[in-house]
Amino acid sequence: MEVDKVPARDEPKYGGIKAMPFIIGNETFEKLGTIGTSANLLVYLTTVFNMKSITATNLINVFNGTCNFGTLLGAFLSDTYLGRYKTLGIASISSFTGMMFLALTAAISKLHPPHCGTAANSTCLEPTTGQLAFLLCGFGFLVIGASGIRPCNLAFGADQFNPNTESGRRGVNSFFNWYYFTFTFAMMVSLTVIVYIQSSVSWAIGLAIPTFLMFLSCVFFFVGTKIYVMILPEGSPLTSFAQVLVAAIKKRRLQLPEQPQNTLFNHVSINTINTELPYTDQFRFLNKASIITPEDRIKEDGSAANPWKLCSIQQVEEVKCVVRVFPIWIAGLIYYIVLVQMQTYVVFQALQSDRRLRNTSTFKIPAASYAVFQMLSMTIWIPIYDRIIVPFLQKITKKEAGITVLQKMGIGLFIAVFTMLVSAVVETRRRNVAFSHPTLGIETRRGEISAMPANWLIPQLALAGLSEAFTVIAQVEFFYKQFPENMRSFAGSFLFCGFALASYMSSFLISIVHKTTRTSDTENWLAEDLNKGRLDYFYYLVAALEVLNLGYFLICAKWYKYKGTQNDHNLEIALEKLEPTKPLV
């Protein structure tokens, strides 16, 4: 049976390059649709649904957090029951449905509250319960879609190629390149063209366009059905994870042998896709799951008769791989708070800044479009780093990647501190200019528009993009390489779960600051009118958190032990035996 499985997966006429147009087409339109809908969502909630900025920000944070946290459930269902094809199909339809709900809230006047007046003292009606329910239904469908698409789309594309052949590996690399190209392309188009249509032409048209693009994404995906390679789910790797924990707890009173690597149970299934891992002394408590007792029974094939009582060293080491990642992952949670601010309060800063191209121009850059500078910074830096800096570092460090992934993360965390410091300084200037120079009018429901050019926001966005290029890309590589091979779908969802908790943490932090700094109903650090608030103080607070987070990360990085392989371990032992004895000095 196993012999028959390999050709079915690697048969070139059913996958490979023939499937790429459909998968890349699906990816392109899906990104254009989802990013086109979410990029300007904050402005939509505050201008069309008349929400207060604090309410809209918290709703967006909860929505983004739920989308990202849902990827864990999506990865579990994909790897355990549905498979990636069915998961992507269901999720794509759900995303299209959610976008259609949002488009209808803009197109049908009864599905959103009346528009506010332009005067500073004009009253605004809040959305009704029915209008909010319809809006939240759309969000719910979008959450389901994101939960299935995000952990599976990259893996499904890679499934179309045989990683054991040179042509297959080239195909995978080509797919990844095209994937990130389409992501960048979608970000650029969404943050410029679609955001402009939404803000300056019509919200109904601006939301209908991403909905139609998502429909095209569904069409592209299902048209290629007969060509796709579909890997059947093999069961959840979380079961093995749970077995190790249960067995270790049951044998917690037993003593480990003096030479555990030679006496503990170590059966490696010939059917596993995971690389064989060497024994390690970290988390010695878990090693007790591999102690063989008289009650334990072993099958003829060498596996344990009851895996809930006896686990192999391989299983234990796979669990350790995941456990080791957690402290590094926690450092990422605090870091992501910086990125969340670049997606929320920077938009509010832009709304109360001079967004004109020239002093005499009537055209205003949409507030949400300034995020494109963060994307541009990352896009420009990546090839410079890969083609120029990495080869230079390779000559110095003699390492294949120039520096380790943890070192890359550390650089990104260091830049994040300066990102928030620059953000605070720019906000102080924006606020001072608003008080010391003539203003440019009033932003509805907010306050007077500062004469400071919104281009002053570009440095902090560029630094955020540079920080993201180091930290987030390093985390993607880190999770992918450090997780066991059969948990790489979960590795992808691990990153998104970090985004999710960061969104919740940011929402919680904003609520705490909003309550503790309140001096009146309209004045606090995060007031509706930024001129009456002290957003710069909030940025300094986030910068202080990032300094503490950087110190915590450095401690964890020094403690961390990279995942090795049994072949690497055997090579180290062989080299130690060959190394000549050093003379005593």
UniProtKB/TrEMBL annotation:
The keyword Transmembrane helix applies. The chain crosses the membrane at residues 88-109, 129-149, 178-197, 203-223, 328-348, 368-385, 405-426, 456-480, 492-513, 537-555. Its main location: membrane. It comes from the Eukaryota. The keyword Transmembrane helix applies. Pfam families: PTR2 (PF00854). It is found in: Membrane. It is a multi-pass membrane protein. GO terms for cellular component: membrane. Keywords: Membrane, Transmembrane, Transmembrane helix. One of its GO terms (molecular function) is transmembrane transporter activity. InterPro entries: MFS_trans_sf, POT_fam. Belongs to the major facilitator superfamily. Phosphate:H(+) symporter (TC 2.A.1.9) family. This is Protein NRT1/ PTR FAMILY 2.11-like. It comes from Nicotiana sylvestris (Wood tobacco). The gene is LOC104216375.
